[in-house]
């Protein structure tokens, strides 16, 4: 498991392949990945690292086919592979995540992972349907609400998207630090004429959680997109009042000025 995760983490740090030859790599066996010298790993391309990750996760699954984590790890790995290198791998992500659900049918985050893959496949209504099952299992899982907002945005159901996004933040403001689609969400709300409504909601939440750097940063970004620069500066300065060494706040202040 840890070897597979290590190869996957390294793959995520590699640049996007520029030619078709770099999209695929010969498959590895478990013995081959165990014998790769550490000095050579840094020279491996993204596709090679993903193949190595696949081999490690498949071996973990072979050793213990009743552990749902092994199916879920393969599902997440194939989702990243599909979104970053080869979209055909997204079907394999669905397969393994569905297999994980068979083994553990009451685990909310696995359904959320499956919904995330459906969003990657642009099957947004299937994502919503899957997330509704997730909410029945755990209505307080913030990531589910955030993914629901992503899906509703793509379906252009803006009021539903707004409600789910605000609910996600209310449940757990700290999740914003790990939301790689936060700026994309904001841009879409602003483009849809929902920016002012979002700014008002996030400002209200920032008052509830005055020491949340992630919330202040989000509100500053929203205000910047709305050309409300002086107010954005106030938000970034509030971040520095909590942590004077926060480099993101300094960067965003520089960009805003």
SSE topology sketch:
Layout: H1 2-12, H2 30-34, H3 38-41, H4 46-63, H5 68-84, H6 90-103, H7 108-120, H8 124-137, H9 142-154, H10 158-171, H11 182-191, H12 195-208, H13 213-225, H14 229-242, H15 247-256
Account of the protein in words:
By secondary structure, the protein is mainly α. Helix content is 72%, strand content 0%. It has 15 helices and no strands. The protein has helices spanning 2-12, 30-34, 38-41, 46-63, 68-84, 90-103, 108-120, 124-137, 142-154, 158-171, 182-191, 195-208, 213-225, 229-242, 247-256. Helix 6 runs antiparallel to helix 7 (108-120) and helix 7 (108-120) packs antiparallel against helix 8. The longest helix is centred in the first third of the chain and has 18 residues, at 46-63. The protein is globular. It starts with a helix and ends with a helix. 40% of the residues are buried. The mean pLDDT is 92.
| Secondary-structure element series | HHHHHHHHHHHHHHH
Helix content: over 70%
* Broad shape: globular
Instruction: Estimate the mean pLDDT confidence.
Output: 92
**Beta fraction:** under 5%
| Rounded radius of gyration (Å) | 20 Å
Number of helices: 15
From the helix content, strand content and strand pairing, which structural class follows?
mainly alpha
What's the count of strands? Answer: 0
As residue ranges, the low-confidence spans are none
Kindly report how far apart the N and C termini lie: 46 Å
Instruction: Sketch the major β-sheet.
Output: none
